[in-house]
Amino acid sequence: MPQRMLALAACCVALHAQGADRPASAAHARSLAATCASCHSSTSDSSIPSLDAMPQPSIAQAMRDFRAGKRAGTVMPQLARGYTDEQIDVIARWYSARSR
Questions:
Q1: Cα distances (Å, whole numbers) of residue 8 to 14, 35, 56, 95
Q2: What is the pLDDT along the chain (100 residues), one digit of tens a residue?
Q3: Which residue range is the domain that position 92 belongs to?
């Protein structure tokens, strides 16, 4: 599990370094969303919610709450700090558009 978290954190840092000052392409949106998939896919552990087709505002607010320390979690507060508001919006839009 620690290696999995380190790999996920490394992906977050790499994606964050790409910058958020340009509109997200479909490939960029998919890349950002992929950082969430190992834990939040519909086939992952049922104790972790799937993000597929979750409402965009719910995903975005949860990420911002984790980032601000308003929502408790084990890994998400640390991961959420690596995303800008724009990146959070891209991820939320991508997952909200997916069907279950």
A1: 10, 6, 22, 18
A2: 454 544 455 455 444 544 545 566 889 999 999 989 888 877 766 788 889 888 999 999 999 999 999 999 999 999 999 999 999 999 999 999 986 5
A3: 2-97
- Domains in the chain, number: 1
- The CATH number that applies at residue 58 is 1.10.760.10
Asked if 54 contacts 95 with a C-beta cutoff of 8 angstroms, the reply is yes
Identify the residue whose tokens are 């087709």.
53
Q: How many CB atoms lie within 10 A of CB 94?
A: 22
Distance of alpha carbon 61 from alpha carbon 36, whole angstroms:
15
